[in-house]
Amino acid sequence: MSATADPADKSNPAHRLGFAEGQIVQELGYDEDCDQELREGIEEVTGTELVDEDYDDVADAVLLWHREDDGDLTDSLVDALEYLADGGLVWLLTPKTGRDGHVEAHEIADAASTAGLAQTSSASLAKDWMGTRLASPKAAKTGKR
User: Fold this and answer.
1) Mind listing the pLDDT tens digit for each residue in 88-108?
2) Which of 4, 40, 72, 95 places its Cα 20 to 30 Å from the Cα of 10?
């Protein structure tokens, strides 16, 4: 049995994020409380390492970890859009209800709207983290089923 997970393994929660091989994912808000399994799963799916806030080229997606005490969420979302490719997505990860740093759903909706993003879905992605998929209105329309 291999110590490395099979990239085709659908039990990897990163598959639900919609990432594809070769995509560049910029990670913002990383801290020691972030879910390592999810981070590694994203790297397995994309075949690339996550890039950090110092990355100054275009990213296909942004993974934004945000806790209640991390500052203004709208500002963080606007910052996340700086190097995001046209049609790219932001996955906002916030602590689940009852966990330290939980962000209320209405705060996420308000911040996303103010930043010019549309909330398209939410999912439990890790033991302590909830993911909210945010897209520009153009990307949100093309991604609808």
Assistant:
1) 999 999 999 999 999 999 999
2) 95
